[in-house]
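S.,

Sequence below, as promised.
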Amino acid sequence: MRILINQDEKEIGHWTADYLIKKINDFSPTVEKPFVLGLPTGSSPIATYNELIRRNRIGDISFSHVITFNMDEYIGIPEDHPQSYHSFMHEKLFKHIDIPVENINILNGNADDLEKECLEYEKKILEYGGIDIFLGGIGMDGHIAFNEPGSSLTSRTRIKSLCYDTIQANSRFFENDAHRVPTTALTVGVGTIMDAREVLILAVGYKKARALKEVVEGSVNHMWPASMLQVHQKCILICDEPATMELQVKTVKYFKNIEHISTHGSHQ
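The prediction came back faster than expected:
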């Protein structure tokens, strides 16, 4: 696991957007060989999305041959509901960039057969050859997508009940009324995320400090699902200074030193 410690959310957004743009451009996607990108919702990726929009407008990146798969969606609220993840992605990213609507994949939380919807989602990812990069955030309790504490670390896309902490955290999007927050969702599994060739995880703010400590310094265990990323072949965790507040000083210095050496030192 590579850990990058930035000063603030804006710096995280710039670095992450730069990284994604370089990866996509180097890939040179075409209709026959699209770049497949996994995407999250929530507050963590907004700075990255804003930078991707800006760079798309000035011609640094095109999304015309990018296929996207979103991590999750609530069950039972209309797609045009302001807090649905369909609406979030449209407002925060998709309507501002040159991605064809047919290239966008988001789970349908109103499908007649929800289990079939989950199986078809996994099948479609495989049909595109898997996900090249999965961008994600991390919950205060260490959840990733809607894989709550206790989730199987080999889980696939499925129906998931949301835990109390997640419902409380998401109530800020529902006029601070937890009773308005859906209690179930469709989500990709931990195993689905682990299958991606690369994973980029964003952790912003002091509220994520405990989760970061458990994910980076703790053991791999299902009560902190994002800890599974310790064994991913290529995972980069991008955080700000407040998110590192519960890490050991030597851990922070270690990762800062590695980045300093790789940027300024010899490449042996």
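The chain has one domain: 2-264.

Coffee later?
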